[in-house]
Design goal:
The complex is a heterodimer. Chain A is an all-alpha fold. Chain A contains ten helices and two strands. Chain B folds into three domains: 235 residues, Rossmann fold, CATH 3.40.50.740; 181 residues, 3-Layer(aba) Sandwich (Dimethylsulfoxide Reductase, domain 2), CATH 3.40.228; 166 residues, Beta Barrel (Barwin-like endoglucanases). Chain B is built from 26 helices and 25 strands. The C terminus of chain B is likely disordered. Classes of the chains: A mainly alpha, B alpha/beta.
Chain lengths: 230, 736
């Protein structure tokens, strides 16, 4: 009897221990799920740059309070997304290129910090790249290719035409499949929006997607292990 | 079962359930690690720099002296893969395994990263000041430079520096050097390194030239060999016969492999001339005269090659013209090595191959950039100077004599007598360890340089200047290229001339631009255009100078190879493997890990013993044996190998380092340390194959780590397996 109890307690203990370990980890799901907060050197507001150009307060004195976002095409900054594995961080030069002519926010703390990277402090360390941390860091045995997804879901499905109206709805929609709604309030660079687990990827790969703009022909995503696993 | 303890069954149950629980909870936890790494972030990149997309830069391989032209793939500012440059006349877009491992020389964890003075880390200013101080008290004749083969602008700077010091003590030493070949070629063909046209030959008879593995320019020869082997060329498919006492990679590829008694290659060559003359081939008078005494019966008795075999060889050479006969280290590494090589060259002349498959090559139009090559005689001369206490300051660069000099030279002791020893080194190897000052060198992927390959492919008078350029930024801020160091030293001596150059790059650019027209840049109006073209191609094609001296009429007086000493009955044939070579790359783990092509052994040295000899000595595979020569004893594992002459044993060079790095140190045994100091009579080159040894069993046995055969397994039937291999059926020396 003692022996039986001892074994049961031991097993139960082990399950609790491993279970509590598992509970701290993200589970496989398909819904929005925030990742841990990542402390970035600059709290970059995605919503301000890519968000919809809706009017908040047309009479506001501060121009930054007039609109929610600038509706910049995601690929203006993440220019490598359509031709490379990675979407890439815009070079510092690109940030400065715009911001040196946007006087209204020049003194904002985040922008001041940005210019510190560009100009350096006391004439030293000029043009230092911003040390952004990876928020979507897949395990080393997984391969993900931005180019393929952008080409398929943005260019092939004709979302470019959708953007001709002047907005960035098409590309924002495509990026949001994996990165969440960037236009959402308080969308910064600090948190992952989706689980990005294998089950989550496979969930989408098992569905039929249109292969062209007409949407009549559909195909599933590749399902071969070696497509993603190295 | 104990009364109140946890019994075995419970233990297993717990283990099973526990394991399952851990495995289950592990699922899905291998997810992303937010915020653990930095994103590739640039401030102002060039247009073509795209993360995850490779950018390719051309440069020159520095892994061996063949100097292949390479292309490096660079991603996110890091070089990740090397390939051949397709525009190269040397390697035509290919590389060898050794070349592929070049990235491991670059990313090696055991590189020297900072200048070290007597073991203490110092700054470059301190290091250069220390040199300046020591040089102040030394006359020109008291300063010596020991380098490996050098060419290009590094050589030019080195010459300038020696001139500024008033020193003429430049010693060039290559541990495995084709020095005999150069001397004999000059004498017999009128050019030191002619172009061998394997691709034009209908038959190749190679006396121990491992041209597919490690001989002179293996990538070039491999591609020629591929053409030679194709049936669709006008000459038809070529036939390769390899004659050598120890089977090399080339021997394994040959149509016929003939084991010959070590050191009798010249006799066979003369015997073939004689047999050809008898078969009606018009043999020139001097050759016929030299060969007249070498009847087939005599040659067969002396070389151990059957009369039938000699007859077949003569027929082959007679029927298939043009042919090509090559002499490699296996024929040259004897006291009569030059004579052997001369007899083999005479065979080529008798066959009319000179001019057909042995073409005169062109030398570079810039003699100050021409390769300066070396041999053992240089090392011996330096060693004598060191022993006499002649040198106050000694520089070493690109060579490791403390490791590779034969023990009988006592080089390490003599080197210690030098007043101040400066080693320019990428690793803290045996020589650098014995030095007072160690200057850290850039890897070939960080340095600027130019070079002129000694063996040049291509056609006619084509030659080239190869450019080495950095494929990425320095991994360590405090390493410098050889050129940078020489320039810094020159600035100390002749500041007026050199202070205008900020670094070696500036010097190189100005030196090349100054000769723009001669370098084929006449059409490029703009310096920058010429420079960009030069860097993007990294090859400057040049019209070479053909200077051919008249070949000497030679009738080599062949002296017989030394008779075996009864107490050391076996001939030791040190082999040069395609990957480890002379040992300078022993710290690159890919090379240690890539199996030897013939034995498939990895990560260790071995001694190859013929099955019959092994049975005689009672040795089976994996036995740890003592290999003893007059100069010393080393221990290694025995490998029973039918591809070796029964009177010879073979061990690979390059293993058994006592320093250099984590992968090289203590891996295998150092063959150099037991080599007898016997030299080639004509050239003074060390006769690598002149060491005789005896093999004695120790009481240890290991499982050889190799890819081939029934590896590992039970030790019980070990002896049985070995005896089976040694059956007469696989005695290749009789079979071919």
């Amino acid at each position: 009897m003692h022996r039986f109890l001892r074994l049961t307690i031991l097993l139960a203990g082990m399950f609790v221990a491993t279970g509590s370990h598992a509970a701290g980890q993200p589970f496989t799901g398909t819904e929005d799920q925030l990742g841990p907060e990542v402390p970035q050197p600059i709290e970059f507001p995605h919503n301000r740059h890519a968000g919809k150009g809706e009017v908040i307060d047309s009479g506001a004195q501060d121009p930054t309070q007039k609109y929610v976002g600038m509706e910049i095409n995601c690929m203006y900054c993440h220019t490598y997304a359509r031709r490379s594995m990675v979407s890439g961080i815009p070079p510092l030069r690109k940030c400065i290129g715009c911001h040196q002519s946007i006087e209204s926010v020049r003194e904002a703390p985040r922008i001041k910090k940005l210019f510190e990277y560009w100009e350096g402090t006391d004439g030293k360390d000029a043009q230092k790249p911003v040390p952004w941390l990876k928020v979507h860091d897949l395990p080393d045995f997984v391969r993900f290719n931005h180019e393929r997804h952008i080409q398929r879901f943005y260019f092939q499905q004709g979302k470019v035409t959708q953007d001709e109206a002047g907005g960035n709805d098409g590309i924002r929609e495509v990026c949001s499949y994996c990165h969440g709604d960037i236009a959402a309030k308080n969308a910064t660079v600090a948190r992952r929006q989706k689980p990005i687990t294998m089950g989550w990827c496979a969930n989408c790969h098992q569905k039929d997607h249109a292969v062209d703009a007409t949407g009549t022909e559909t195909a599933r995503g590749p399902n071969d292990c070696f497509t993603c696993h190295k | 079962m104990s009364e109140n303890g946890f019994n075995r069954r419970d233990f297993l149950k717990t283990l099973g359930w526990g394991g399952t629980a851990v495995a289950l909870s592990g699922c899905g936890n291998t997810s992303i690690e937010d915020g653990a790494e930095f994103v590739t972030s640039y401030s102002e990149p060039a247009d073509y720099v795209i993360p995850s997309i490779g950018v390719y830069y051309n440069s020159t391989c520095a892994q061996c002296d063949a100097g292949c032209n390479i292309t490096g793939r660079v991603r996110e500012g890091r070089v990740i893969k090397l390939e051949g440059n397709a525009a190269s006349a040397i390697n035509h877009g290919k590389t060898c395994g050794l070349g592929q491992a070049g990235v491991q020389a670059h990313y090696n964890p055991d590189r020297v990263t900072q200048p070290k003075l007597n073991g203490q880390t110092v700054t470059w200013e301190q290091a250069l000041a220390a040199i300046s101080e020591k040089l102040a008290g030394a006359s020109g004749a008291e300063v010596a430079f020991l380098t490996g083969g050098v060419s290009g602008h590094v050589r030019a700077l080195l010459d300038n520096y020696l001139a500024a010091l008033g020193s003429r003590e430049h010693f060039v030493y290559e541990a495995v050097s084709p020095a005999v070949e150069r001397a004999v070629n000059t004498k017999m063909y009128g050019t030191a390194m002619p172009r061998y046209r394997i691709d034009k030959a209908r038959a190749v008879v190679s006396f121990g030239a491992d041209f597919l593995g490690a001989w002179v320019s293996p990538v070039n020869f491999s591609q020629q060999y591929a053409k030679f082997r194709k049936g669709n060329r006008p000459e038809g498919r070529g036939v390769l016969v390899q004659i050598e006492p120890k089977m090399t990679l080339t021997g394994a590829n040959a149509d016929r492999w003939i084991a010959i008694r070590p050191g009798t290659e010249g006799i066979l060559a003369l015997g073939l001339i004689n047999a050809l003359g008898a078969a009606g081939v018009a043999v020139p008078g001097d050759a016929a005269a030299a060969a007249k005494d070498y009847t087939t019966e005599r040659v067969s008795a002396e070389t151990g090659v059957s009369a039938d075999q000699i007859g077949r060889l003569a027929t082959l050479l007679k029927e298939r013209t043009p042919s090509l006969v090559l002499a490699g280290s296996a024929a040259e590494g004897y006291a009569n090595g030059s004579q052997n090589a001369e007899a083999i060259a005479l065979l080529n002349r008798a066959l009319g191959n000179v001019g057909a498959t042995i073409e005169t090559s062109a030398s570079t139009p810039f003699p100050q950039l021409a390769p300066r090559v070396g041999n053992r005689a240089a090392l011996t001369a330096l060693n004598d100077g060191l022993a006499a206490g002649k040198y106050k300051v000694v520089f070493t660069c690109g060579t490791n004599p403390v490791y590779s000099a034969p023990a009988s030279l006592k080089f390490a002791d003599n080197y210690a007598k030098a007043g101040f020893k400066v080693a320019l080194a990428q690793y803290l190897d045996e020589t650098a360890q014995a030095a007072d000052l160690v200057l850290p060198l850039d890897s070939a992927m960080e340095a600027w340089a130019t070079s002129v390959p000694e063996y040049m492919g291509g056609e006619g008078n084509y030659t080239q200047l190869s450019v080495t350029q950095p494929l990425m930024e320095r991994l360590y801020a405090d390493t410098r290229s050889t050129g940078d160091i020489l320039l810094a030293l020159l600035k100390q001596r002749s500041p007026d001339e050199y202070s205008g150059f900020e670094d070696f790059y500036a010097y190189l650019r100005s030196a090349l631009l100054a000769n723009k027209t001669a370098l084929g840049g006449a059409g490029e109006a703009d310096d920058d255009v010429f420079w960009n073209v030069t860097l993007s191609q990294a090859i400057i094609p040049l019209q070479g100078v053909v200077s051919k001296s008249a070949p000497q009429s030679a009738a080599p007086a062949l002296s017989a190879p030394a008779a075996a000493d009864a107490s050391y009955p076996l001939r030791l044939i040190p082999s040069v493997s395609a990957s480890i070579r002379d040992g300078r790359h022993a710290n690159e783990p890919w090379l240690q890990e890539s199996p030897d092509p013939l034995t498939t052994i990895v990560w260790d040295s071995w001694v190859e013993i013929h099955p019959k000899k092994a049975a005689e000595l009672g040795i089976v595979e994996g036995d740890i044996v003592d290999v003893t020569s007059k100069s010393g004893t080393i221990q290694t594992q025995a490998y029973i190998f039918p591809g070796i002459h029964p009177d010879a044993v073979s061990m690979p060079l390059g293993y058994g380092h006592t320093a250099m790095g984590r992968y090289a140190k203590g891996t295998g045994a150092n063959v150099y340390s037991i080599l007898d100091a016997v030299y080639d009579k004509d050239t003074g080159e060390l006769a690598l194959n002149e060491t005789s040894v005896k093999i004695s069993k120790t009481d240890k046995r290991v499982i050889i780590v190799k890819e081939e055969g029934p590896a590992g397994g039970s030790q019980v039937n070990r002896a049985k397996i070995a005896v089976k291999v040694s059956a007469d059926k696989v005695d290749l020396s009789k079979e071919v």
